[in-house]
Amino acid sequence: MYLAAPDSTASIVGFMGSGGLALCLTALLVFGVMGKGWIKLNTGAKAGTVAFLAGTSYMAAGKIWGSPEQVVQQGWTGLGVGGGTGPFGEIGIGAACSLLLLLMLVAPLNPVRATALALIAAVTWPSAGDGTIWSVPGQLAAAFFMMIGSG
Q1: What pTM does this model have?
Q2: How many CB atoms lie within 10 A of CB 134?
Q3: Computed over its alpha carbons, how large is the radius of gyration of the chain?
Q4: Residue 82's CB: how many other CB atoms inside 10 A?
Q5: Each residue of 29-74: pLDDT tens digit?
Q6: Hey, which of 84, 88, 93, 138 would disulfide with 126, CB 3.0 to 4.6 Å?
Q7: Rounded Cα–Cα distance for residues 1 and 40 (Å)
Q8: Rounded to the nearest 5 degrees, what angle is found at the Cα of 83, between the Cα atoms of 80 and 84?
C-alpha cells in the first residue's frame, strides 16, 4: 500500500514505503527503549508515541507487519469484545478503546508497558470506525506519514 507515490521527489527522505517505515520505526522503538544510544525513549510518553506510530505503520504495511494486528484482534475476541457475551459480559469496541485511554492516563507506565499499550491502541482505536473519536490519532499519524512520503 502506498501513502505517497514511490519516487524520491515525493519525500524529504526519499521513498521509504510502508514496510520500510515500519522497519525504521521498529528499530527506533526497540533501541530507543533499550536506552543505550543517542536517542532514549526513557519515559512512557516518548515510548508510547513512537509505539503508536509504529503500530499505525504496521497496519499500512501489511504482510508480516500485520501479525501484531491479528494477535490483538484475537485477544479482544477472546475477551468477548464486539462479539456478544464474553467472560466479562458484553463489551463493545468503544469500551475497549476507552479502557486503553484510561490505562494510558492513570496506570504507572514504564517505557516497555507504554510500548505494549500503545501498540494495542494503534490496532484497536481504528477498529471503532471512521466516525469515532478513536480514529483521529491514526488518521493524524497517516497524514504525517503521507507528508514525509512514506507508506
Answers
A1: 0.82
A2: 22
A3: 16
A4: 18
A5: 999 999 888 999 999 999 999 999 999 999 888 888 888 888 998 8
A6: 138
A7: 30
A8: 80
